[in-house]
Specification:
mainly beta; OB fold (Dihydrolipoamide Acetyltransferase, E2P); four-stranded antiparallel sheet
Length: 66
């Protein structure tokens, strides 16, 4: 099974909620807001916020929930 890894740098929207699978594996769902700023053709600042969701597993989930 292949695993994809993505790095997102932003701000957590809410605290991660630590849960455990029936087999005892830690998991935490997260939402991250990423702000992007740029100047448009008229020289005016524009800003856009994108939201990303993800799931952390095992030790990463436990660390995020602390």
């Amino acid at each position: 099974m292949a695993t994809n890894t993505v790095t997102v740098i932003g701000n957590l929207v809410e605290d991660p909620e630590l849960r455990f699978t029936p087999s005892g594996i830690a998991m935490a769902k997260i939402r991250v807001a990423v702000n992007r700023r740029w100047r448009d053709q008229a020289g005016e600042w524009q800003e856009q916020t994108s939201f990303f969701g993800g799931t952390l597993w095992r030790e990463a989930a436990e660390n995020a929930a602390e």
